[in-house]
Each structure stands twice: as structure tokens, then as C-alpha cells.
Write a structure and sequence with these properties.
Its EC number is 2.1.1.152. With 254 residues, this protein is an alpha/beta fold. The chain folds into two domains: 2-143, Tetrapyrrole methylase, N-terminal domain (Cobalt-precorrin-4 Transmethylase, domain 1); 146-250, Tetrapyrrole methylase, C-terminal domain (Methyltransferase, Cobalt-precorrin-4 Transmethylase, Domain 2, 2-Layer Sandwich), CATH 3.30.950.10. It is built from seven helices and ten strands. It has a five-stranded parallel beta sheet, with helices on both faces. It has a five-stranded mixed beta sheet with strand order 6-7-10-8-9, with helices on both faces. Helix 3 (77-99) packs across helix 4 (120-130).
Length: 254
């Protein structure tokens, strides 16, 4: 039986690797990496640097494949994501079937935590449901960008006896979540926080968290929003991509 480790590698800082993750890396023979293009080559480079550090004798193989493009222009978001995940599943199925022998151990190095807004677990389940390739897998949790964000801002996710919600920019644009005043937002390509600058809200924002390119901004949303928009535009133009996360903290009496 083939074995797959799904390893959370943290939000960008190599020191985010847990001891469990390091043990799983050292027990892996084949690592599967998806090439996201030249713009995001530093993400692949960071993964390879982790392998070099923790398996210095080079007793492993890295198998790379091109990540399929997702249709980002369509208004039919969910079907587009489903199609993209299925095409990813085709690639993963081929890699596992052709590059991993029975009895060997492979791994996917997942940015952040595999359980939070990542497709790997769902894709592996889809492959198993197809029934053409057999394997078992386990999940090694990682430090998510959410945990890293609040740590870098020296704040907590929630306030005493209060809930916190994690959502997406797409959802936030449809309205501030009901019954919640502390909201973490991920995958926000359109800066949906700008819809709420008229409210009494604090923002803790971060981009490229845990990397040398890290950018942090916090303060009243009305004051911070223009600065974040400016920094975000500059960073995206410089690197060609951006990964950012933020916490909105609304004053219930505001």
C-alpha cells in the first residue's frame, strides 16, 4: 500500500515547521510539487529549501507537475473551482500511480494548514472514490496564516466569551457576518474591507506573512484602508502575486 503524508508547512517562515512535520518529511521518499509558474517560483523554492535542510543527504525524489489554471473571469465561481479541483485530481492521481511504488511514502507540502482553505484533502478523497489508485494518507497540521497573523500583531483571534468567524472576501462583500464582531478574512482579491470603512472597526492585516517580504498594518479601518490598498498594489506589482489575510474587529457599540 502506498502512503501519503499531507504536511502543513506553515505560512512562510521555515521555523513554522512542527516537529511532527519534520519527522514526516524525513520519512518521505517522494515529494510532489505543483509548479505555479515563474511568478510564484519562490513558493516552490521555499519548499525545496526545507527539504534540503531536513534531508541533507538528498535521499528523496521531487516530482513536479504544472498546476492547472483556474478560470478566474467566470461569474460561476463554484463550478469553476470544482472543474479546477478535478483537473488537479487527474494530475495527483497520475503522479501517485506512476511515481510512487507500492510500499513507498509520498508527501504533499501544503502551505499553511491542510484543513483551512486548501484543496488537497478533498482532491485525495476524490481520487480514492475513483478507485483506480490505492493509498492511505494522514494529515500533519501546520501553522496557518491566521495563527501567524494574530501572532505577528500580538493579539488574539477572539475576545472573551465571544465567537470568531473565518470567511472569504467573496462572502464579506455580501455582508458582515451576523452575530459576530471578530472576522478573519482570507482569499480577498478585491479588498472587501473597503465596504466597511464607515463603521467602528479595527483591522489587523498582513501579506506574505512569515517571509522576508512580510507587510503588516493595523489600526482603525477607515485610516488603515487607503494605506493597505497602496501597499497591496505596490507588492502585487513587484512580485506578481500576493497572499494576504486580515482580522476585522468591530466595536459592538459602534
Amino acid at each position: 500500500m502506498r502512503t501519503i503524508h499531507v504536511i502543513g508547512i506553515g505560512a512562510g517562515d521555515p521555523d513554522h515547521l512542527t516537529l511532527q512535520a519534520i519527522k514526516a518529511i524525513k520519512a518521505t521518499e517522494v515529494f510532489f510539487l505543483l509548479d505555479k509558474g515563474e511568478e510564484k517560483s519562490d513558493l516552490t523554492g521555499l519548499r525545496k529549501a526545507m527539504l534540503d535542510e531536513h534531508i541533507p543527504d538528498g535521499s528523496y525524489r521531487v516530482v513536479e507537475a504544472r498546476d492547472p489554471a483556474r478560470d478566474r473571469k467566470t461569474d460561476n465561481y463554484a463550478p469553476a473551482v470544482d472543474d479546477w479541483r478535478s483537473r488537479r485530481a487527474d494530475i495527483y492521481e497520475r503522479l501517485i500511480g506512476e511515481e510512487l511504488d507500492d510500499g513507498q511514502t509520498g508527501a504533499f507540502l501544503v502551505w499553511g494548514d491542510p484543513a483551512l482553505y486548501d484543496s488537497t484533502l478533498g482532491i485525495l478523497e476524490e481520487i480514492l472514490e475513483r478507485g483506480r489508485v490505492e493509498f492511505s494518507y494522514d494529515v500533519i497540521p501546520g501553522i496557518s496564516s491566521v495563527s501567524a497573523l494574530v501572532a505577528r500583531h500580538r493579539t488574539g483571534l477572539n475576545r472573551v466569551a465571544r465567537p470568531v468567524q473565518i470567511t472569504t472576501g467573496r462572502r464579506l462583500a455580501q455582508g458582515f457576518p451576523e452575530g459576530v464582531d471578530d472576522v478573519v478574512v482570507m482569499l480577498d482579491a478585491h479588498q472587501s474591507f473597503t465596504h466597511y470603512t464607515d463603521q467602528d472597526i479595527e483591522i489587523h492585516w498582513g501579506a506574505y506573512i512569515g517571509t522576508p517580504d512580510e507587510i503588516l498594518v493595523s489600526g482603525p479601518l477607515a485610516e488603515a484602508a487607503p494605506r493597505i490598498a497602496e501597499l497591496r498594489a505596490e507588492a502585487r506589482a513587484r512580485k506578481g502575486w500576493i497572499m494576504d489575510t486580515y482580522l476585522l474587529r468591530r466595536n459592538p457599540g459602534g
